[in-house]
Amino acid sequence: MKEKVSKKFNELYGEGAILFASPGRINLIGEHTDYNGGFVFPGAVDKGIVAAIRLNGTDKVRAYALDLGESSEFGLNEADKPAESWACYIFGVCREIQKRGGKIGGFDTVFAGDVPLGAGMSSSAALESTYAFALNDLYNCGIDKFELAKIGQSTEHNYCGVNCGIMDQFASVFGKKGNLIRLDCRSLEYAYFPFDPKGYKLVLLDSRVKHELVGSPYNDRRASCERVAKVLGQEFLRGATMEQLEAVKDRISEEDYKRARYVIGEEKRVLDVCEALEKGDYETVGKRMYETHWGMSKDYEVSCEELDFLAEVAEECGVTGSRIMGGGFGGCTINLVKDELYDNFIATAKEKFNAKYGHEPKVYDVVISDGSRRL
Question: Is 284 within any annotated ligand binding site?
Answer without folding.
Answer: no
